[in-house]
Structure formats: structure tokens, C-alpha cells
Amino acid sequence: MKQLSVAVIKELRVEPIWGFNNYQIMQNNAMNFKSLLDQVFMGTVILVIMRYSTLRRTEIHRANVEKRYVGTWQLYVQIIKVIGYKATFTFLSFADFNVCPAFWLQIVVSKKEKKVQRQTTLTKFLEKQTCNL
Q1: What stretches in the chain show pLDDT beneath 70?
Q2: How many structural domains is the chain composed of?
């Protein structure tokens, strides 16, 4: 006679991958994101996107980001394994901003805008200096 089997619901928990706890890394980096090095900062952004999507790192590097309505970002990606296939990922805001992709994408875009603004002011300054010579 067959015995009854009961399905047990496992508790979801954060599991470390290769000895790293990704959730804890994101939490720690979010607390002091202004003092992070650029490589660590971009690594955290890529980690957050990979956590909430099925993308790989090389696909994220080639992606385009666009801000949509309040708190929503869209990521346009060309999937590498499938030729000619483009995907769109929409990231919404979470209650916990430390692990929210929308929070990290907003910081990346604002940093790039500041960098472009600094470069344009520098070129204008250099143009004035060359005109004065």
C-alpha cells in the first residue's frame, strides 16, 4: 500500500552563491554608495539587475536604460544567444530601496549626467582659453 506524502513548503531564504551573500553585499553598498569606487558601484548595479532578471553580465553592458513614469525604469537588451531577439525588462520600485534596481539605475543615470555636464563645462573653459591666446 502506498504511503501518503505531504508537500512541505520550504521557507525562502537568502542563499550564498560561491560564498557570497548577494543580499548583504547590496545592503552594505547601499548604505554608503557615495563613497564607493566606480568599479564597485557598477558591480553592485549589475548584481542588482542580474538578481531580478535572467540577464548575463555582457548583456547588461550592452543594454540601454530609459526612465518611464514615476519610479519605473525600462532596460532594452539584445539577447546574445538568440540572434535578432530583443527583450525589454521593466523594473518597478520596491519598499526596500537598498535592493531595488530602480534606485540603483537612477543613481547611475544621475552620475552620468553630472559627468557629461562637467565635460561640457571643461570644453567651454578650454575654448575660452584658446580664444584668449
Answers
A1: 1-23, 52, 54-58, 60-61, 80-85, 97-98, 125-126, 128-133
A2: 1
Distance CA 101, CA 57 (A): 15
Query: What is residue 67's predicted lDDT score, i.e. its pLDDT?
Result: 81
For the chain, the farthest-separated pair of C-alpha atoms sits apart, in whole angstroms, at: 99
Q: Dihedral of CA 30/56/22/74: which sign? A: positive
SS (H, E, C) 55-91: CCHHHHHCCEEEECCCCCEEEEEECCCCCCCEEEEEE
d(CA 103, CA 30): 10
Give residue 35's domain range.
22-112
Is there a domain that residue 92 lies in? yes
